[in-house]
Every structure is written in C-alpha cells, then in structure tokens.
Amino acid sequence: MRGRPPRSGTNGVIVDKVPPGPLTGGRWTVKGIGLLIAPVLCHAQELQKTGRTR
Fold first, then answer.
1. Which of the chain's termini has less CB crowding within 10 Å, N or C?
2. Alpha-carbon distance 36 to 40, whole Å?
C-alpha cells in the first residue's frame, strides 16, 4: 500500500465538456469514484482510458 494513492484503481467518469484550463490547474473533473466521495480533480497522467462511456 505504500506509495500508492488512496483511491488507486478506482473507476470514475470525466464530467468536463472542454479541456481543462488555468482555473483548475490543468486537471480534469472526475465523478463516480465512490458513494461518499465528491467529484475530484485529477491530472491527465493519473487517468487511463477504459473505452467505457456513460
């Protein structure tokens, strides 16, 4: 567990309609990570395409 982010390996959905800008520091908004977890900001290198869409 050491060195891993706390939510590593979870699935979420990007909710942004346009590429991220300076307001979010170049991070994407991701939701659906967990039942009690609000949408979070993630850097592009933290994301992995799964091919699923909602």
1. N
2. 12
